[in-house]
Amino acid sequence: MALTKDMKLPSDEELTVPQEITLSTPWLKAVAPYMAKHCEDQINEFMLRRKELQDPRATLKEGAAVTACGVDFLRSLKKTCAKETETLANCVDQSSARLFMSKCHDQQKVLDACIEEKLQITRPKMGYFSKLHVYDSKHPAPEPKVRDYKAEAAKVLKELPEDYHLRKDYRNDENYFCNKDYGWSPLVQVTLFLWIYKHTFLSGSIMESFLKSWKAVSWENVQLRVDGEIKAIGQRQDEGEVGRKILVDESNKYRENTTKVIFEDFLSFMLK
């Protein structure tokens, strides 16, 4: 949604909830499936209203309800399975650098049993929250609003002063095909090009001259020229091999002479 100067934003009091959820990542990963299952109705209501209304200001009450439900679940969990939750959270925190749950299945099974026994919440199966769910909201579906953009644009143009500078490159239906400032439109240009191409290049006289030129080509001369190019390429390759061999021989001789001189200098230095 676009923000305008006339938009009313919520106050700090409307954005404040009695208790925020301040969990670190390991603890949140440890309790997230159970919390989501416990607060499933509140979460569905919030997400549905958020999608339908397309206005975050209109769903502050539903968002606060989700937060309150999460806080209530954490308080119940603290009273019943605090030790098991702490064990799983510590395992997630310390077992891997990326906080993988796959390293802590044993601790997770213990917490599953505790929550199922004392809070009657069964851990959702893998992929449960990715499936499609049908939710019947207590709020009626909002009526779709269709904006009249032409009326809004006409109102804006009417409010402009008479001497307001307007752009000259806007499209006008009356001069769409040919504009006095910019010439022919791209559609007309393409149409003219195709018409000229059809009636010139594809005409009979041009095609006849093209076929005559094609038939007049001497393929023997073409073959001789190709053979000459291939022979020249082979000759250049042979010359390159000879030059490479000469370069390698010279390099070996230089290395042998250099090694010999260095060895003689070393002996003379040691014998002094």
From TrEMBL:
The keyword Ion transport does not apply. The keyword Glycoprotein does not apply. Transmembrane segments: none annotated. Keywords: Disulfide bond, Electron transport, Mitochondrion, Repeat, Respiratory chain, Transport. It is found in: Mitochondrion. One of its GO terms (cellular component) is mitochondrion. GO terms for biological process: mitochondrial electron transport, NADH to ubiquinone. InterPro entries: Cux_N, Cyt_c_biogenesis_Cmc1-like, NDUFA8. Signal peptide: none annotated. Residues 207-266 form the Cux N-terminal domain. Accessory subunit of the mitochondrial membrane respiratory chain NADH dehydrogenase (Complex I), that is believed not to be involved in catalysis. Complex I functions in the transfer of electrons from NADH to the respiratory chain. The immediate electron acceptor for the enzyme is believed to be ubiquinone. Belongs to the CMC family. Belongs to the complex I NDUFA8 subunit family. This is NADH-ubiquinone oxidoreductase 19 kDa subunit. The lineage of its organism: Eukaryota, Metazoa, Ecdysozoa, Nematoda, Chromadorea.
